[in-house]
Design a protein that fits this description.
This protein has a five-stranded mixed beta sheet, with helices on both faces. The longest helix is centred in the N-terminal third of the chain and has 22 residues, at 18-39. The radius of gyration is 25 Å and the shape is elongated. With 375 residues, it is of the alpha/beta class. Helix 5 packs antiparallel against helix 6 (132-146) and helix 15 packs across helix 16 (352-368). The model is unreliable at 1-21 (pLDDT under 50). Helix content is 43%, strand content 14%.
């Protein structure tokens, strides 16, 4: 049965009823604390309390997993929404986040929690003795993580479970939030839940055809600024594209130009990247004429924004390549990557065929003999 809490709206403020306002505000805060502690605990209350300003913020407190209870609220009334039921029980998660986005104004605050894959793994492994704990964990991953993603098991899974207690990763949850127009303000582990505070910054992307399978298409910039879909084997959680700016802001870049400590990459994804297997589907783009064998890589909008204006403008004149100059020069910093690409483009302008021939075999040597790998 859905647990639904009536909204608590902070009262207005003027000099004539200052005492009454303060009393009402104190009563509202007391009621808030009572509900949060009863449904969760004191630590959760301490986490959400800084975002409840009784004299300014108009706050809605719910414990729901359905967007009906979100869409049933009046628009333009609330500045903050706190949901005490974790998002693992939400069936249509993006639609749920989109409904919250529509309810809140720009800059509005949304607070919720998720039991992440890692936290649930720790809980299961501690709860059962070895080797039973690993058996239970494996079955849990297959039923609650794999089945909801596969087209031929998804409908059966949701029919049986109604989407309850689905297994979600931190990466997928945050990626979905960013795709739905939010940015993460802060996060904290409390018990077996990851609580997060996010802020509405824009309208949702409304991605009506997200991919969950092993083959994905990523939007990349090619020749003349053309945006096209680059085929790759999945190495990250769904919706990871939307989280590039957040990961960069948190961790910057690692040696080789990749994002440092990128939690969006899955365990299988690390293996695929190590042996360059995730790049093989890009041969489809080569066969379609969108890319050539050797050339500067097609980049995402955010990664391209990190380049200086000169090389950003110049690399747009050329068809991108499957094998980039990176695997010839093996640069470590972004500046070195840009210098490497400029050297390649200068050489290509003088002799295109010879340049690509030489770069191809040098890259093959580094990949297969010196074991140069993508991270």
């Amino acid at each position: 049965m859905e647990l639904y809490k009536t909204p608590i709206v902070a009262p207005g403020h003027d000099e004539s009823n200052l005492t009454a306002v303060n009393a009402d505000a104190a009563q509202a805060m007391f009621r808030f604390r009572e509900i949060v502690v009863e449904e969760c605990n004191q630590d959760v209350w301490e986490f959400v309390k800084p975002y409840i300003c009784a004299e300014a913020a108009r706050c809605l407190l719910l414990a729901t997993s359905t967007r009906f209870n979100i869409r049933n609220q009046p628009v333009g009334v609330f500045d903050t929404l706190i949901n005490l039921k974790h998002v693992n029980d939400v069936r249509y998660l993006n639609k749920f986040f989109e409904a919250i986005n529509a309810l809140l104004p720009d800059g509005g605050i949304y607070i919720n929690s998720v039991q992440t894959h890692r936290l649930r793994k720790e809980k299961i492994l501690k709860r059962f003795v070895w080797p039973l704990n690993w058996v239970v964990y494996t079955v849990d991953v297959i039923l609650r993580r794999v089945f909801p993603k596969l087209s031929f098991t998804k409908k059966v899974y949701f029919f049986i479970t109604q989407g309850q207690n689905r297994l979600l990763s931190k990466a997928e949850t945050f990626c979905r939030l960013y795709s739905c127009g939010f940015e993460i303000v802060t996060e904290k582990h409390i018990g077996s839940e990851l609580y997060f505070v996010c802020r509405k910054i824009k309208q949702p992307a409304f991605d009506n055809s997200p991919t969950y399978g092993p083959l994905i298409r990523l939007k990349r910039y090619g020749k003349n600024g053309m945006v096209f879909g680059v085929y790759k084997a999945r190495t990250m959680h769904p919706f990871s594209e939307y989280l590039q700016e957040y990961v960069y802001r948190q961790n910057s870049l690692d040696a080789g130009g990749k994002f440092k400590d990128d939690f969006r990459v899955t365990t299988l994804g690390r293996f695929l990247r190590k042996f360059w297997l995730d790049e093989l589907p890009m041969f489809i783009n080569v066969f379609k004429g969108q890319m050539k064998m050797v050339g500067v890589r097609p980049l995402s909008k955010h990664y391209l924004s990190l380049y200086n204006a000169e090389i950003r403008e110049r690399r747009m004149r050329y068809k991108p390549g499957l094998i980039p100059p990176f695997y010839v020069d093996l640069p470590e910093t972004l500046d070195e990557i840009m210098e490497s690409e400029m050297r390649y483009l200068d050489a290509w302008d003088k002799n295109p065929f010879l340049t690509d021939f030489v770069y191809f075999w040098k890259a093959m040597y580094n990949i297969f003999i010196r074991h140069a790998r993508s991270k």
